[in-house]
From TrEMBL, chain A:
PROSITE patterns: ABC_TRANSPORTER_2 (PS50893). Keywords: ATP-binding, Nucleotide-binding, Transport. This is Urea ABC transporter ATP-binding protein UrtD. Residues 5-246 form the ABC transporter domain. Pfam families: ABC_tran, BCA_ABC_TP_C. GO terms for molecular function: ATP binding. The gene is urtD. SUPFAM superfamilies: P-loop containing nucleoside triphosphate hydrolases (SSF52540). Signal peptide: none annotated. PANTHER family: CONSERVED COMPONENT OF ABC TRANSPORTER FOR NATURAL AMINO ACIDS-RELATED, HIGH-AFFINITY BRANCHED-CHAIN AMINO ACID TRANSPORT ATP-BINDING PROTEIN.
TrEMBL record, chain B:
Pfam families: BPD_transp_2. It comes from the Bacteria. The keyword Secreted does not apply. InterPro entries: ABC_transp_permease (IPR001851), ABC_transptr_urea_perm_UrtC (IPR017778), LivM-like (IPR043428). The chain crosses the membrane at residues 17-38, 50-71, 78-95, 145-168, 175-193, 225-245, 266-292, 298-317, 324-341, 361-378. Keywords: Cell membrane, Membrane, Transmembrane, Transmembrane helix. It is a multi-pass membrane protein. This is Urea ABC transporter permease subunit UrtC. It is found in: Cell membrane.
Length: 246, 415
């Protein structure tokens, strides 16, 4: 299995606190992976490093084949390489319609002058309509995103990620604030997406992770504590100690 | 069933463009027909000049709205570009006119003057006031109108590009960026105040109302011509700005205003977009300045002081940020009211024991209305039009009905 993303012994500290400590992590071209860990384990920092928001003090992040380093790129360049990120809190552009939000995310040139010359076409309209119905917002395309409910905003953000057509999807707590029905939909979608691309899900909720039915990486104090199936890691005494305390 | 995405021509999607153009056309024709040069003469030439200058200020306000209302950068240095435009066109106006005067006086000599003597005479005339007789390097192209016109666009554009590149690249945002823009215009003003800056220090450039080569045409006619030019520039810039903010580009620009980080994660080079808008706005502002100062007749470094740019921000805020026509309304209404109240013609209010003299109290009233607008009507005057046009923010009262009920909140669900 060739690795799409290879995180090679990275470390980062904030004011002396080691948020990430010699962390290594690989993910393949089409793989679903759950990353779990207690608060402060470094899950969000890990995503910040991969997406270019935070620079590690040591180590390297390699991407694709032939591997190139993501560390020399800024957030926008990494996003254009095909790394999509879903934030914990839904961040959509509330003052713009669902259609505008999706159109902005559609895979196309990001250069200011190409954007200036960009015109909607029948194909782009269809794509927006398809994406909207895929995330259950077909009735809402003309509404402002700010009017949507919390769950709908989460879905819109997922729709925007899909529009970007990323090769690697980083999803931060997708189930937060969702109802049971919405969670089931989300699980199904993530599993389906992972058939054609790499998906990394950061999650607290063990039930949700169990439903994903995939390889699990447990982070603790900025490094990998255990890796394997959920049953495998939950039997690990270290994991039990970290999660349940003594 | 998917809602059909509506796609209409630009004008139909932006009916306000037609309205603005129509109002501008009617205004220009009306002023022309009432002017001394082309009509009944009801409007004196000085008023025609005030109206023409007001159109230039409105043009600067449209550019400010692009930068502040759409891109979200509260630039407090826009008038630096405005004044630069004025200085650059002023160089040609002053040089060419002085040259013709000097040539006329030297023509009485028995031997015709050489070009070097002519230039020396011009330099003496222009720079004698700051104790210099040499033509500074920055006046190298002052003899050529096409080059100076090009510089009107190029110099402010380049300044905005370099300043913006440095500031945006280091991700300076919010109030820090505002302070930086203010520092830029202040530094430029202080430099221009020096006698050896090459721009005649605090004397500035004067006599700009006399257009070289148009000696036979009186100010009454010229004032109407400049009004036409200003109206045309405003119309073109308005269409350009409306087009810019209407499509996907506008969508991205507004997204940068609302959540810059998120736009980065969508893969857009945020700095590039900021640079395009900031530079374009600087160039529009410079054109406004280049049209303003020939009508004003004089320019000096005081025009670049930060207060001028702050006024511009106040006009846009009162008119309505994020609405291009709001910027025009704000600039026209507030600047005309300002000149009326500070012109000494506004009747004082006689209170028992105190006389409210508007020359003194107008600043206070303006400041107070700025605070009130910011607090109670953040959309400014344009908010009234939004309300008339039925563009209302959703009424979001009551508790959330829960995720399964969609976006409706209690109050909406009842209605």
């Amino acid at each position: 299995m060739s690795a799409l993303l290879e995180v090679d012994s990275i470390s980062v500290s904030f004011d002396g606190f080691k948020a990430i400590n010699n962390l290594s992590f690989n993910i393949g071209e089409a793989e679903l992976r759950a990353v779990i860990g207690p608060n402060g384990a470094g899950k969000t920092t890990f995503m910040d490093i991969v997406t270019g928001k935070t620079r590690p003090d040591a180590g390297d992040v390699k991407w694709g084949t032939p591997p190139k380093s993501l560390l020399r790129m800024n957030e926008a360049q990494i996003a254009r390489e095909g790394v999509g990120r879903k934030f914990q809190r839904p961040t959509v552009f509330e003052d713009q319609t669902v259609a505008d939000n999706l159109t902005m995310a559609l895979k196309a040139s990001r250069n200011p002058f190409s954007v200036l010359g960009w015109r909607p076409s029948a194909a782009s309209d269809d794509k927006v309509a398809d994406l909207a119905s895929e995330v259950g917002l077909a009735q809402q395309v003309g509404r402002k995103a700010g009017e949507l409910s919390h769950g709908q905003k989460q879905w819109l953000e997922i729709g925007m990620l899909l529009a970007q057509e990323p090769r690697l999807l980083l999803v931060d707590e997708p189930a937060a604030g969702m109802t049971l029905a919405e969670r089931e939909q989300t699980t199904a979608l993530l599993v389906r997406l992972a058939q054609t691309r790499a998906v990394v899900v950061v999650e607290h909720d063990m039930d949700f992770v169990r439903r994903l039915n995939c390889k699990v990486t447990v982070l603790h104090q900025g490094s990998v504590l255990a890796e394997g199936s959920l049953d495998h890691v939950t039997r690990n005494p270290d994991v039990i100690e970290v999660y349940l305390g003594r | 069933m998917t809602e059909k995405l509506t796609r209409q021509p630009f004008i139909l999607r932006n009916p306000q463009v037609l309205v603005v153009l129509a109002v501008l056309a009617v205004f220009t024709v009306a002023v022309t027909l009432l002017s001394q040069a082309y009509g009944s003469g009801v409007i004196p030439t000085s008023t025609v000049k005030v109206l023409g200058k007001t159109l230039c200020l409105a043009l600067a306000a449209v550019a400010m709205d692009l930068v502040w209302g759409y891109l979200g950068i509260l630039s407090l240095g826009q008038m630096a570009f405005f004044a630069l435009g004025g200085y650059l066109i002023g160089q040609w106006l002053m040089y060419a006119r002085t040259e013709s005067i000097v040539a006329a006086s030297l023509a009485q000599n028995p031997i015709p003057p050489t070009p070097a003597e002519l230039q020396e005479g011009v330099a003496n005339q222009i720079f004698g006031v700051v104790g210099s007789a040499d033509l500074p390097l920055v006046w190298s192209f002052a003899h050529s109108l096409p080059i100076q016109l090009l510089l009107v666009l190029a110099v402010p554009g380049l300044l905005a590009l370099v300043f913006g590149w440095l500031a945006f690249r280091s991700r300076v945002n919010g109030v820090y960026l505002s302070i930086l823009t203010q520092a830029m215009t202040l530094a430029l003003a202080l430099w221009l105040f020096q006698n050896d800056s090459g721009f005649r220090g605090n004397n500035g450039l004067s006599g700009l109302q006399n257009i070289p080569g148009l000696d036979g045409i009186d100010q009454a006619t010229l004032s109407v011509w400049f009004l036409w030019a200003s109206a045309l520039a405003l119309a073109l810039a308005y269409v350009l700005a409306a087009w810019l903010v209407s499509g996907k580009f506008g969508s991205v620009v507004r997204a940068i205003r609302d959540d810059e980080t998120r736009v980065r994660f969508l893969g857009y080079p945020v700095e590039g977009f900021k640079l395009v808008v900031f530079t374009l706005a600087a160039m529009i502002t410079a054109v406004a300045g280049a049209l303003y100062y020939p009508q004003a007749g004089i320019i000096n470094p005081a025009e670049l002081m930060p207060i001028a740019s702050i006024y511009l921000a106040v006009w846009v805020a009162i008119g309505g940020r994020g609405r291009l026509y709001g910027a025009i309304i704000g600039a026209v209404v507030v600047s005309l009211l300002s000149s009326w109240f500070t012109g000494g013609r506004a009747p004082s209010i006689h209170l028992p024991g105190y006389v409210v003299n508007w020359v003194d109290w107008w600043q206070v009233a303006l400041g107070l209305s700025f605070v009130l607008v910011t607090l109670f009507a953040p959309k400014g005057i344009a908010g009234i039009f939004d309300r008339l046009g039925g563009i209302l923010p959703p009424q979001r009262h009551g508790r959330d009905l829960g995720p399964d009920q969609g976006a409706l909140q209690e109050q909406e669900a009842k209605a």
